[in-house]
């Protein structure tokens, strides 16, 4: 929904208004409205369409009851209602369709409750009392308890350094070990291995999002993402290699925004070309994990990526990970590598080809299949580093409201952007 809020509206708001299609429902509602101290004249005849028309020229009430009975597409029509409601409006919907999926979708979109006709006095009284309590709840209490969200981008300095292995393992560890609702976004559109590493089919969710960014909302996320476990959902693709990527990046940014609403952690497997073509993707990223090998080429590209991050995303925390480390075999020693990139290596993960083969055979992430290996232990330490980056009093932004978030009372946490990363200069 892109239309702006209407301006110049009166500051006073009614406590309650209702728009119901039939007299029987109004007969049930009016005595309860009087009982709660509201004007019975605010119980209007007419459903959702009448509500939208009326509220487009007057301020919306604190609590709104609206009838969806005459709506052919309730979820879509609710969008028009959100356009004319003030932020914080509590909406109780009424309808005659007894469908669990509709109920879940309405609640997920931000509706407070859905009542099934024929209405009963007890049902209506309970719903309106709960809505009144939600509206009266202190706003600052919501801000204090709003969930944090950490968005982590994993970027490899070279192809084959193991960035995708680390991205999938991090996502799995956040979801399975830390039990945090996690989204994994694999932005290697043509050759991504996010779903493959978990023995899953990627589906068409990501390609559909790229082709139709306007469709991306909470319901789209729920239907398009593939579940790997109770807390991990994946959005990946295997686009035909004869189909070039045609996008301005708007779909990716919209996906990130929706992830912030639906999950506590986001892991983005971000190929270097995506970083170059769509720098806006790092706007809401909190942590960047740079995956490198101890080689001359990786040292050069680590310097370039660190320099780019310092100039274009100074708010991110940078974690440098040396992967596939083999003592005595590296082109460059750890000390020389750190001196070259003018930043320390935060974590070294040993090379273990047998463990990698074992994960592939089992159809599991590396960290899940090899929990007792030295490499697996190092990956769990990396997960702790990411989560530990935001322990304490450093606020993590909770993200923008979802498509129908105008009905919600959740406040955003304050954002404290701090310049992070190494002081490195690009080489020619």
TrEMBL record:
Key words, A-Z: ATP-binding, Nucleotide-binding
Q: Check the record and name the InterPro entries matching this protein.
A: CheY-like_superfamily, P-loop_NTPase, ParA/MinD_ATPase
| Official protein name in the record | Pilus assembly protein CpaE
């Amino acid at each position: 929904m892109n239309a702006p809020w209407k301006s110049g509206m009166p500051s006073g708001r009614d406590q309650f208004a209702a728009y119901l299609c039939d007299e029987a429902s109004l007969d049930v509602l009016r005595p309860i409205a009087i009982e709660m101290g509201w004007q019975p004249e605010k119980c209007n005849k007419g459903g959702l369409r009448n509500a939208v028309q009326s509220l487009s020229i007057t301020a919306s009430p604190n609590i709104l009851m609206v009838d969806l009975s005459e709506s052919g597409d309730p979820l879509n029509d609710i969008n028009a209602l959100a356009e004319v409601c003030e932020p914080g409006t509590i909406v109780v919907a009424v309808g005659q369709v007894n469908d669990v999926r509709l109920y879940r979708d309405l609640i997920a979109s931000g509706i407070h409750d859905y009542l099934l006709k024929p209405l009963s006095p007890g049902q209506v009284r309970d719903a309106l009392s709960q809505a009144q309590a939600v509206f009266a709840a202190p706003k600052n209490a919501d801000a204090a308890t709003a969930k944090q969200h950490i968005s982590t981008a994993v970027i490899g300095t070279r192809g084959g350094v193991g960035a995708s292995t680390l991205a999938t393992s991090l996502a799995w560890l956040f979801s399975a070990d830390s039990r945090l609702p996690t989204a994994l976004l694999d932005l290697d559109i043509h050759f991504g291995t996010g779903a493959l590493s978990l023995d899953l089919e990627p589906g068409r969710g990501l390609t559909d999002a790229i082709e139709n960014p306007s469709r991306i909302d909470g319901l789209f996320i729920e239907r398009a993402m593939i579940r790997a476990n109770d807390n991990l959902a994946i959005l990946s693709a295997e686009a035909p290699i004869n189909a070039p990527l045609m996008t301005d990046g708007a779909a990716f940014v919209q996906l990130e925004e929706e992830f912030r609403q639906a999950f506590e952690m986001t892991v983005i497997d971000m190929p270097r070309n995506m970083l170059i073509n769509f720098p806006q993707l790092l706007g809401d990223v909190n942590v960047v994990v740079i995956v490198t090998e101890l080689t001359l080429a990786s040292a050069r590209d680590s310097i370039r990526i660190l320099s780019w991050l310092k100039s274009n995303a100074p708010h991110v925390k940078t974690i440098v990970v040396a992967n596939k480390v083999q003592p005595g075999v590296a082109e460059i020693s750890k000390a020389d590598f750190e001196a070259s990139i003018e930043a320390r290596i935060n974590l070294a993960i040993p090379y273990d080809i047998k463990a990698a083969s074992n994960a592939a055979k089992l159809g599991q992430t590396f960290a899940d299949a090899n929990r007792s290996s030295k490499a697996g232990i190092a990956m769990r330490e990396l997960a702790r580093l990411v989560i530990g980056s935001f322990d304490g009093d450093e606020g993590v932004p909770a993200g923008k409201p979802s498509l129908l978030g105008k009905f919600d009372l959740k406040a955003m946490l304050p954002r404290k952007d701090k310049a992070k990363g190494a002081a490195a200069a690009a080489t020619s």
